[in-house]
From TrEMBL:
Cellular component GO terms, alphabetical: plasma membrane
Record protein name field: LysE family translocator
First and last residue of the signal peptide: none
Cell location: Cell membrane
Organism: Variovorax beijingensis
Pfam families, sorted: LysE
Main subcellular location of this protein, as a coarse class: membrane
Membrane-crossing residue ranges in chain numbering: 6-28, 40-65, 71-91, 112-136, 148-172, 184-204
Annotated InterPro entries: LeuE-type
GO terms assigned for molecular function: amino acid transmembrane transporter activity
Length: 206
């Protein structure tokens, strides 16, 4: 394994995951509401989606890239609708049933799958991976081994961020009362709705 290439991909995976957006917000909210495992698996769903897009970019699967870019509008609409639905669910959840909010996150598998699908709903990410991988791949042997190294690095870098985030949030989870958790749920719901509205408006303005 080319260690320098792996390290570059690791940093890329970490930098992609780190910015706080709807996925980070979901990971934080789910960790507070359901515990570290659910928050972690939610983040790993995003890491897995990043790895899938990374693989498409690293191996240069042009047919898949073209089809995903062509379907970017319906995919983005689906992602915005899903964000809006989760936002409404959090806003409507009463304090007495906080533990049952966001039912899509009731199990690790469902938590991972929901965020995996949500992350895949942004096909323009493929173009970013194609450009980045073309850049970091220059100077390295163009082979399947190098592509695998980059994909593994991206996944582990992204996963490292989600492990750290879910662990940090879980450390303060039991110090928060029911009223604070309810406020966090409602704030999270409002922010998710905001992300959904922004995505819808961006699509309509094109």
């Amino acid at each position: 394994m080319d260690f320098s290439l792996f390290l570059k991909a690791l940093v890329i995976g970490l930098s992609i995951a780190a910015p706080v957006g709807p996925i980070g917000l979901l990971c934080i909210q789910r960790t507070l509401a359901h515990g570290r495992a659910i928050g972690l698996f939610s983040g790993l769903g995003a890491a897995l989606a990043d790895a899938c897009y990374g693989a498409i970019g690293a191996f240069g699967v042009s047919a898949v890239i073209s089809s995903m870019v062509a379907a970017r509008v319906p995919l983005a609409l689906g992602g915005a609708a899903f964000l809006g639905w989760m936002g409404v669910q959090l806003l409507r959840a009463p304090a007495a049933t906080q533990a049952r909010t966001a039912q899509d996150a009731a199990t690790p598998r469902k938590a991972m799958l929901s965020v995996f699908m949500l992350t895949l709903a942004n096909p323009m990410t493929i173009l970013s991976f194609v450009a980045v991988f073309a850049s970091i791949g220059s100077g390295h042997a163009s082979s399947s081994g190098a592509a695998v190294t980059m994909v593994v690095g991206v996944f582990l870098g992204s996963a490292l961020w989600w492990v750290g985030l879910s662990t940090a949030v879980s450390m303060v989870r039991h110090k928060l009362g029911a009223r604070v958790l309810q406020s966090i749920n409602r704030l999270s719901g409002a922010l998710l709705l905001g992300f959904a509205v922004f995505q819808f408006s961006a699509l309509l303005s094109r």
